[in-house]
Amino acid sequence: QGQLVESGGGVVQPGRSLRLSCAASGFRFSKYALNWVRLAPGKGLEWLSIISYDGNTKHYADSVKGRLTISRDNSKNTVYLEMNSLRGDDTAVYYCARGISEFQVLSGVLDVWGQGTMVTVSS
Amino acid sequence: DIQMTQSPSSLSASVGDRVTITCQASQDISYFLNWYQHKPGKAPKLLIYDAASFDTGVPSRFSGRGSGTHFTLTINTLQPEDVATYYCQQYDHLPYSFGQGTKLEIK
């Protein structure tokens, strides 16, 4: 069914930037839309962003619009999340997740998830 | 944006019980509703998509129903390994959105 592995998390100061990566294996990466979702301490899952299989369509949650940028490199089977102007409430585990349908521009059924990478925003 | 409201927020039940979690959407989302199971330290797992369809390998004791604005996830014959937080998620409209979660514990 495939595997996703996130990386790039860590401790970062408020106002700084961070880029997360999500590497895929075991499936044809270029056929699927990818999403980012986060889980903040004591909170529930929050959907953040989606990028289409070809990278041409992107959408963001209102809460992060303008500060997060999603991108992908199909030659490297990797999706990225660039996060700018980080704040304390960005502290969370960040997951990437695959949309279930091949060649669907936007796919909101998330059938393969990574284990997550922890981002802590603190001075 | 569409708001998803789950109830209850937490639930304690005995092994063998039947458990039902409810999810209410703030507007009509047809059948574009998924359910996920999340255990601490693990990747979330898709259980049910399109309100009532099982993902591969999901035990038959899990079932989903509903359409429009009202949805339910039922676990028949609760097992110890079902301890987790359960989330509904709509994908009818962007931005996609999750419910706040229902934490299920065993008595």
What does this structure look like?
The complex is a heterodimer of chains A (123) and B (107). Chain A is globular, with a radius of gyration of 14 Å. By secondary structure, chain A is an all-beta fold. The model of chain A has no long low-confidence stretch (mean pLDDT 96). The N and C termini of chain A lie far apart (40 Å). Chain A has strands at 3-7, 10-12, 18-25, 32-39, 45-51, 58-60, 68-73, 78-83, 92-102, 110-113, 117-121. Helices cover 0% and strands 54% of the residues of chain A. In chain A, 39% of the residues are buried. In chain A, strands 2, 4, 5, 6, 9, 10 and 11 form a 7-stranded mixed β-sheet that branches. Chain A is built from no helices and 11 strands. Chain B has 107 residues and is mainly beta. Helix content of chain B is 0%, strand content 50%. Chain B is built from no helices and 11 strands. In chain B, the strands form 2 sheets. In chain B, strands 2, 4, 5, 6, 9, 10 and 11 form a 7-stranded mixed β-sheet that branches. A 4-stranded antiparallel β-sheet of chain B has the order 1-3-8-7, with no helix packed on it. Chain B starts with a strand and ends with a strand. At the A-B interface, strand 4, strand 5, strand 9 and strand 10 of A face strand 4, strand 5, strand 9 and strand 10 of B.
Provide a concise account of the structure shown.
With 123 residues, chain A is an all-beta fold.
Head-to-tail CA distance between termini of chain A: 40 Å
Work out the number of β strands of chain A: 11
Order of helices and strands of chain A: EEEEEEEEEEE
- As a percent range, the share of helical residues of chain B equals under 10%
Write out key terms for the chains shown:
heterodimer, A: 123 residues, mainly beta, 4-stranded antiparallel sheet, 11 strands, B: 107 residues, globular
